[in-house]
Design brief:
Number of helices: 4
Number of strands: 2
Order of helices and strands: EEHHHH
Structural class: mainly alpha
Strand content: 5-15%
Largest sheet: 2 strands, antiparallel
Strand order of the largest sheet: 1-2
Shape: globular
Distance between the termini: 15 Å
Helix content: 25-40%
Length: 124
């Protein structure tokens, strides 16, 4: 199975970011049990939107060409599923993306380059 991820271009390079588990994982991780009203798509949208906003701030990338493909890649065929990741975990990832400097955003080439709080954060 393909991991959830987003593939984005910054400065002519392409970045694929895994922010969700393998599709066959299904585990909820450390944040299991915290209620959420979010879908996988909702959580992916929040994270991808922030990542794309940072690429726009840093490199002038058009968010319109970044967000929709990123969300599609992030949630794959699980967009409508109920997310089991806590909103707190998603908020932490977003805060860490906001705090990242442009050099960090440009060097994202796989999940290990993301802030630790964003690695495999979206779960169902």
């Amino acid at each position: 199975m393909v991991p959830f991820g987003i593939c984005l271009g910054t400065l002519g390079s392409s970045s694929c970011i895994q922010i969700g588990p393998d599709a066959n994982d299904g585990s909820a991780g450390a944040d299991a049990g915290e209620p959420t009203d979010s879908t996988v798509e909702g959580q992916c949208t929040r994270i991808v939107t922030e990542f794309c906003a940072r690429t726009q701030e840093c490199y002038g990338q058009d968010p319109e060409t970044c967000v929709n493909p990123g969300v599609d890649q992030c949630c794959g065929r699980a967009c409508a599923k109920q997310a089991t990741s806590s909103e707190r975990a998603v908020d932490t990832c977003i805060a860490d993306l906001k705090a990242a400097d442009c050099e960090d955003i440009d060097t994202v080439s796989d999940a290990s380059d993301l802030p630790a709080s964003c690695q495999n954060v979206v779960k169902y």
